[in-house]
Amino acid sequence: MTEKAEDRKPLLSKKIDRFFTGLADAWNFVRRFFKEVFVPPYEFKEVIHQCYRIGVESLPLISLTGFIVGIVFTNQSRPSLSEFGATSWLPSLISIAVVRAMGPLVTALIAAGKVGSSIGAEIGSMKVTEQIDAMEVSATNPFNFLVVTRVIATTLMIPLLVMYTDFVALMGSFLSVSANEKVSLTTFFVQVFESISFLDIISSVLKSILFGFTIGIVGCYKGYNSSKGTEGVGRAANAAVVMAMFLIFIEELLVLQIVNAIRAF
Amino acid sequence: MEEKVVEIRGLEKSFGDLDVLKGVDLDLHKGENLVVLGKSGSGKSVLIKIMVGLLKQDTGSMNVLGKEVSTLSTRELNALRLRIGFSFQNSALYDSMTVRENMEFPLVRNIKNLTKKEITMKIEGLLDSVGLPQSINQMPSELSGGQKKRIGVARTLILEPEIMLYDEPTAGLDPITCGEINSLITQVREEYNTSSIVITHDLTCAKDTGDRMAVLLDGQFDAVGTFEEVFPHAEDKRIKSFYDYNFINS
């Protein structure tokens, strides 16, 4: 073995060690959430406050994005369908794409960027300025007040935002379709609902709940474990977004496999 | 003999290879203001963080108000924490809340059945006593460093603690505001009948607020006594340089 390879060995082993320690830490954090979510005191007021921040304050961004996604996807799909003379299938195609995949995925990715980073930065800055310690020494459970409330709020609000995004994207799509073809809103939505099944809606909602939980727990975990001053806060916010997005794609893939298996069964 | 509210024996704490506290012994008596001095990184803050259970010692005993801190359950530790006020170095005000909400936060979570009127009266009374009644609806970002410190102290006093712990109360403040904070520490002892530990490396603060000084050097208390006993005629070079820097060079 060369000298260089020898030098690298401890570094690699350190990295592996750090990876598994991080994994165990994250697992313990998730376990702690499920343990503390049922333990009083219940911070209802803070949950509502967080729901407002996460849900209502995300509406403008989600509306704009959803609307654009609907228009763009419709415009991109039209040439391919018109080659086969099947532009009348556009509402069906769009509804399946939006409800099954694009609505949840686009909403979750935007929320990971907006909400996940803000949770990571907020809790991270509270950590480095000793605000979390201040809660602890005043006999208040900071995990309950900061983590449990935010994770509940994201888990509740992301599915609602997804439904809203689906609706706005379909409206955008209708606008695009009606600009080129003669179709009424009723006909458009009849076609939309005929194309999607109960399984599509249920899987979309369940997936959104999972995405919401992921965004909340990752943001809180990264913020709660931040260190090294303001640099650490920036890192926590960044890591919250990257990690949440990565996990959302993995979850999307897994849920898709499960739903396809159910569909085949 | 005066009643001891804090009794520390053989306390040791390390972070990795770094030994911070190496067998510390110290007592705090009821009604006393004890000043703990030492260089930055000497373990002063670690000592008071162990006192409230934010950190755990490696070995030794930390007895606070008759309870051995390291053996307490979470519920018992929280009950003890209600009897201790901790004023943080950077005030640690919750920056997403107004001054009123900052002060309400520990109160409504720990004392049940208080009416809105009682809560407001308590908050206004405390803000009056720290000289900032007008700041009740301000956000922490709108306050100066000295005002933040005062509100931080008021927030800890709202639970009527028996022991006050001040972590670097005058750090980063101008001399006039330092003097105001020193007066506030003395005023708190007189009005609220507290025993206090003041962590600082500011000898003016120590002289103004402390009944006894304890100098933490190399992980142990090197000199404990009144200001006159410890400082002006110190033979230990490290303590002497501490005194010279504060009272001659500054």
UniProtKB/TrEMBL annotation, chain A:
InterPro entries hit by this protein: Permease_MalE
Keywords on record: Membrane, Transmembrane, Transmembrane helix
Coiled coil residues, start to end: none
Keyword field contains Aminoacyl-tRNA synthetase: no
Transmembrane segments: 54-73, 93-112, 151-176, 196-224, 236-259
Protein name: Phospholipid/cholesterol/gamma-HCH transport system permease protein
Organism field: Algoriphagus winogradskyi
UniProtKB/TrEMBL annotation, chain B:
GO molecular function terms listed in the Swiss-Prot or TrEMBL record: ATP binding
Domain ABC transporter: 6-243
Source organism: Algoriphagus winogradskyi
InterPro entries xref list: AAA+_ATPase, ABC_transporter-like_ATP-bd, ABC_transporter-like_CS, P-loop_NTPase
Top-level taxon of origin: Bacteria
Name this protein carries in UniProt: Phospholipid/cholesterol/gamma-HCH transport system ATP-binding protein
Classification of source organism: Bacteria, Pseudomonadati, Bacteroidota, Cytophagia, Cytophagales
Keyword Nucleotide-binding among UniProt keywords: yes
UniProt keywords, alphabetically: ATP-binding, Nucleotide-binding, Transport
